[in-house]
Specification:
Length: about 230
C-alpha cells in the first residue's frame, strides 16, 4: 500500500536522503533500521509531507502523494506516532484520543478498543498529557494514531527511553495491531524484539538503503548488524 521510490530530501543545502526505496504491503510489518543520524526520521518526515522531498515519489495505493500537506496524506490511511510522542499536554488522555478520532462504516478503533489495548490509559483517562509517565505517553501517542483508523501505522522510535517492562508491553501491542490487519512501519533500535513480529527490514546508512531483507535473512547475516547497526 506504501511505495517509496528514489526519495530525496534536504535541510537547506544539506542533502540527507539519496534515493530511498521502501515498500510496505497490506498487513505487513517493515522496520527501518540504522545508526543515529543516518536519515530514518527524515525519511518518515518526507513520507508524511512534514519535510518536502526534493526528489522521488511517495505512492499510497498507487496514488502519488509526494509533498502533499500532512493532513491530506493522513487521509489516505496513514497514522503517525512521532518521535518524542508530541501529545497535547493540556488535554486529558481521553481528549487526546477523541481529538483525532476518524470513524467510518468499517472502523475498528474507538475509545473502547484503545482502552482494551492499553488498560492503563483508561485508568488515566482524566489525567492531562503532562501528568502521565513516559511509557503512558507513548501508549497515548499510539492510541491517538489508531483513533484515525489507519491502514498503515508509522512509529518513529517506538520504545526510545522506556523501561524494559514498558518496552515489552509496547511490542505486545504492536503484534496485536498487526493481528488486527494493519500494516506497520517502525523505527527502533531493539532489533531482536522487532524481529519477533516483523516481516522485512530496511537498513539505512548515510541516507541510502544499505540492505533489505526478511527477518530470516537478517538473522542469518550477523555482518549486517556489525556493519550498520552496532555503535
Amino acid at each position: 500500500m506504501l511505495q517509496v521510490e528514489g526519495l530525496e530530501a534536504a535541510y537547506g543545502e544539506s542533502r540527507i536522503l539519496f534515493g530511498i526505496d521502501i515498500a510496505v504491503t497490506a498487513g505487513e510489518v517493515v522496520t527501518l533500521l540504522g545508526r543515529n543520524g543516518m536519515g530514518k526520521t527524515t525519511t518518515i518526515r518526507a513520507i508524511f509531507g512534514l519535510l518536502k522531498p526534493t526528489g522521488g515519489q511517495v505512492l499510497v495505493d498507487g496514488e502519488d502523494v509526494t509533498g502533499k500537506e500532512p493532513h491530506l496524506i493522513a487521509r489516505h490511511g496513514l497514522g503517525l506516532v512521532p518521535e518524542g510522542r508530541q501529545i497535547f499536554p493540556t488535554l486529558t488522555v481521553e481528549e487526546n484520543l477523541v481529538a483525532t478520532h476518524r470513524a467510518s462504516a468499517t472502523s475498528r478503533w474507538d475509545l473502547a478498543a484503545v482502552y482494551g489495548l492499553f488498560p492503563r490509559l483508561k485508568e488515566r483517562r482524566r489525567n492531562h498529557g503532562d501528568q502521565i509517565s513516559g511509557g503512558e505517553q507513548q501508549m497515548l501517542a499510539i492510541g491517538r494514531a489508531l483513533m484515525t483508523n489507519p491502514r498503515l501505522v508509522v512509529l518513529d522510535e517506538a520504545t526510545e527511553g522506556l523501561a524494559p517492562l514498558i518496552r515489552e508491553e509496547i511490542w505486545s501491542c504492536l503484534a496485536a495491531i498487526k493481528n488486527e490487519g494493519a500494516a506497520i512501519l517502525v523505527i527502533d533500535k531493539n532489533v531482536e524484539a522487532l524481529s519477533r513480529f516483523a516481516d522485512r527490514h530496511v537498513v539505512i546508512e548515510k541516507g541510502r538503503v544499505a540492505w533489505t531483507g526478511t527477518t530470516e535473512e537478517l538473522r542469518a547475516s550477523p555482518d549486517v548488524k556489525d556493519r550498520f547497526l552496532h555503535v
